[in-house]
Amino acid sequence: MNRFDYIRPGTVAEAVSAAAVPGSAYLAAGTNLLDLMKIGVARPERLVDLNYLPGLDAIEALPDGGVRIGARVRNADLAQDPGFRRRFPAVAEALLSGASGQLRNMATVGGNLLQRTRCPYFQDTASACNRRAPGSGCDARGGENRLHAVLGWSEACIATHPSDFCVPLVALGAVVEIAGPAGPREVPLADFHLLPGATPERESVLAPGELVTALRLPAEAAGFAAHARYVKLRERTSYAFAVVSAAAALRIEDGRIAAARLALGGVAAKPWRAEAAEAALVGAAPDAAAFQQAAEIALAEARPSGDNAFKIELARRIARRALRLAAAGTPERLPALPASPFAPLSGGLHG
Amino acid sequence: MTRLIVNGAEQVVAAPPEARLSTVLRDGLGLTGTKIGCDAGDCGACTVLVDGAQVCACLVPLGQAEGARVQTVEGLAADPMGAALQHAFQAHGAAQCGYCTPGMLMAAMEVLQASPRPAEAQVMAALGGVLCRCTGYRKIVTAVMEAHRFLDAPAAPLPEAGQAVGARMGRADGWPKLDGREAYGADAAPADALWLRPVRSPHAHARFTLGDTAPLLARHPGLERVLAAADVPGRNGYGIYPDIKDQAVFAEGLVRYRGDVVCALVGTREAVEAVRVEELPLDWEVLPPLAEPGAALAEGAPALHERWPDNVLTTGRVRRGDAAAALAASVHVAEGRWQTSFVEHAYVEPEAGWARRVGDRIEVFASTQAPYMDLEEVAGVLGLPHAAVRIVPTACGGGFGGKLDVAVQPMLAIAAWLLRRSVRATWSRSESMASSTKRHPARIEARAGCDAEGRLTALEFEGIYDTGAYASWGPTVAGRVPAHSTGPYRVPHVRSRARAVLTNNPPSGAFRGFGVPQAAIAQEALWDRLADAAGIDRLEFRLINALRAGDATATGQVIAASAGLPACLEALRPRWAALREEAAAENAAGGPLRHGVGIACMWYGIGNTGMSNPSTMRITLEPGGRLAFHNGAVDIGQGSTTVLLQIAADALGLPASAFALVLGDTDLTADAGKTSASRQTFVSGRAAMEAGLALRDAILLRANAGPEGRLALSDGMLTVDGRPLHLEAPLEGLGRFDPPTVPLDADGQGVPYATYGFAAQIAALAVDTELGTIRLKRIVAAHDVGRAINPLLVEGQIEGGIAQGIGLALMEEYLPGRTENLHDYLIPTVGDVPAIESILIEDPEPLGPYGAKGIGEPALVPTAPAIFSAIRDATGAEINRIPALPHRVLEAIRRKEGAG
């Protein structure tokens, strides 16, 4: 690990001004950053530790019915918060399907948004990677790329964003609150992460020194609580990243879909909200034909970036599965294996 | 200065705020019970509680633990529930190698603090982030659920004299694994030891030159030496076979895989860690690699090593009868092709150890499965006589075959010898994965036939095993596979060949089963299809063909006794019927979930293939009454320390608790051979029995007592039939056993093994035919072990073997350079292992101690084929590219549907 300065600011303003110095990085729980520093992928010259900042660790009910989640709230604390869990069950399910108990006890909400890709070429400093070393090329193209992007990728980069948490968040219209040298601002989560284009090294809209301070979910997001699921296909039962995943949320009135939300994970460099598919669902009966059509629309633009054509069909199927499970109703208690396609469910897979 | 409360006591630590809590605990506070498995939050071995919540200590910067309450394994016994949990682990055999155990215990404490009587799902959720490679998790889950029962219960008594064999005795070496005292390779080096850090090739194939390292040494104070090929005092080569020392300690201008060692940095820890690889004066000329066996076998392919011009390391063959003619005459014929992947051992303890020079001798302390082989390698690279080398195995945090090859040992010995300092090393996880041996990827083509009654007629088997860049155990694999290619069945006509082919991949070596698990996948798939073709139930088909005592094998060996496969199958029959009925009922409901039940059998030759593999055990009784069992068999978690003690105790006629254990050290114990080939219970067990009987004879002779004389030992006084026996000189019982075999001839005919383990396993599962995922529901395993010396530990081997079989079948695929960590390389977690029912069949082996054979490898072999059999049953799909990841399952389903 390289040598670096360590700064422990006492306020957000101090943090922002400390991090404005080039070469700085914010340190939250460090579950991702410290690992990347160890393997030489991240080499910050100074670490600005956020762990002693006051005021970023609350889960706050807003007067309008929404919720504000401080950036330092731990994943486990958010997932276990009874009020939050009841109103935003798909978000809790996604949180509990991610990483391991140890990591969820440490990892923060803000850090989750800013996770770096698990692309093995990004993680291997001996490989070419435009995201890590702009202009060096992309060894994932033509390499081992079974798990890479099928939506929104470019010739420069085919990596995916690894977060589970962000998938239902983007579906539910979350907003990111940001502090920075130029003052505070807000960005919808859907616009927060950037697709690679020609500049894959730019992963989010954050300018140097900007700090995520909170996430907000709007009141209307809680309106989906009765029909909201997150489903994740992974290659072992727990502690594995998604091959593909989907968050689906429906408002069903008089046997028809009054509102729909659908987002996909593991398919692109950002959590992928499928707005056209959502629009197609509105007014339809919540049945297999409607879900099939929505899944087709959601993946209409997909194309393989390598040896991963199978992911396109899998993504359609996981979208259908999530919609079907959401239509069947949010279970009263989260299944023992959150987000597992095999979890026992009301409505049944057999029928 | 940072203040922490560690296990209730305040500690003030002088370390930078970004120091990892794991490092602070281990190096700063000496609490080495917290283990490092990956240093990246992927394995959970370093799990501790911080303010009651489980976290990976390797990911906690010290600054974030300021003022926190930290609980580690060392503090567990002070908490009543913690102590109860330790007792539960001991009673249920929940620790094997013990390396993940501290992390498991602490993760379990998180849930036990909230729910003293947790449900299974709660326990699964709490343990989901701790990887265990030994146990298969089931006994751990049970121990956590049952911990509350041990709150007030006294510890179970040890078996009485004469009652040890057959007892479900807790591990004789169990407690240090539960309280953090056990010292593994990285735990016990002297404080002033220098550190060694190898520099490895990032290329699969390249030439290189290493320039002048003096400027590097000058730039890094504390860096003492850069060791390279020219520094090796003896032979710069090692390897398993006495005549194949093809792997250099330090490469000589040419690297053959990503992981070959170019040189090693020796100095203070800070100094060796501060060096960046780019700083080294290394010039590379990258060469095109031979990436797979097809390329290596192609006409005109360059030879990896001069001595194997066609890149074929070894060819193993078995020929018996006329397979081609018999196949042509068969009523039913099935054939297929299969391809398996590299599989990583993924022991949770990375390779580690230390060495020191003591006068003109060298002493190496390391995690190993084979101390006497290490001794020979260290003597070879130092150019020293064997007597000048001492190997002291540390506790071994899992091996599975991967620690049969040397790793840290030669380099540490060279460094300590030349620098006359203690030198230590611990591989990082990615280094461990990049450099260590793997399970051979196999490409198998096979054809088999049967007659109208379902009797097997013939088998043709062709296996190409990617043996990687160096020989390692490749010849053993190529030799063992053809001898096992029929599986445990009567097949009159056989033509079988396996070739180990050199490539620029990591060396493939020994991994639980030596190539047999891959072959079993092909065999068992053929039997299923032949059974279907003949219209015979899949279990009954296997029973028709099962080897029985008196049958001849394909190598011409007549199995004299202890052939318990028919008994295994008969024991499974009621479960088979019930599970199939259950699956049929579930399938009747329709939907995308398809349920299936599969079956597979295996046999496994215990010990080396057609080669001598003796073991010697020694028991001494001193005049002061000290009874010592000198046991050189390394317990890597499988339980040999306990099992051999049980055997020795009953042979001698004293309780197991009467013995002092002298383990492993090559200065203090005789050569027991390596811990491999499932041989320690059978071979060393028989030697232990002989040693016990010999000492007993000596005692009875001296006491002038009859053969039924009753021994007792208390307060240093031995009595025989109640009469004290005074000794002027020590008595010794020496036992040696070498299983009788006959080497295989050019047609693979001979007696390769003195005995075989047999087994059959059933897997019940559901396939999600939309998503391609598999959910295992149940595995029932019937194993003929001859005699279960310790049924608790036998079950532990079965469950752990099954977990590794699940990994092989469903998720494990090592890609060199791409999956060198434990989040991209997936091994089963607690949720991936279903309920397992073990049925122990005891068809005694006359040569074995009290009838015992072996279980280590047999446990793994049938699992993957049983899973594929169940997928076939559920969907009709044939899995022939392994592991069966979701996309491959979907492809197999599509292929089957396409075929109509």
From TrEMBL, chain A:
Pfam family, one: CO_deh_flav_C
Residue stretches in coiled coil: none
InterPro entries the UniProt entry points to: CO_DH_flav_C, CO_DH_flav_C_dom_sf, Diverse_Substr_Oxidored, FAD-bd_PCMH, FAD-bd_PCMH-like_sf, FAD-bd_PCMH_sub1, FAD-bd_PCMH_sub2, Mopterin_DH_FAD-bd
Keywords assigned by UniProt, alphabetized: FAD, Flavoprotein
Stretches that traverse the bilayer: none
Domain FAD-binding PCMH-type residues, every copy: 1-222
PANTHER family: XANTHINE DEHYDROGENASE FAD-BINDING SUBUNIT XDHB-RELATED, XANTHINE DEHYDROGENASE SUBUNIT C-RELATED
Protein name: Xanthine dehydrogenase family protein subunit M
Species in which this protein is naturally found: Belnapia mucosa
UniProtKB/TrEMBL annotation, chain B:
Domain 2Fe-2S ferredoxin-type: 1-76
Pfam families noted in UniProt: Ald_Xan_dh_C, Fer2, Fer2_2, MoCoBD_1, MoCoBD_2
SMART domains assigned to the protein according to its UniProt record, in alphabetical order: Ald_Xan_dh_C
InterPro entries membership: 2Fe-2S-bd (IPR002888), 2Fe-2S-bd_dom_sf (IPR036884), 2Fe-2S_ferredoxin-like_sf (IPR036010), 2Fe-2S_ferredoxin-type (IPR001041), 2Fe2S_fd_BS (IPR006058), Ald_Oxase/Xan_DH_a/b (IPR000674), Ald_Oxase/Xan_DH_a/b_sf (IPR036856), Ald_Oxase/xanthine_DH-like (IPR016208)
Highest taxon in the source lineage: Bacteria
Ranges that cross the membrane: none
Membership in a protein family: Belongs to the xanthine dehydrogenase family.
Name of the protein in question: Molybdopterin-dependent oxidoreductase
Annotated source species: Belnapia mucosa
Organism lineage string: Bacteria, Pseudomonadati, Pseudomonadota, Alphaproteobacteria, Acetobacterales
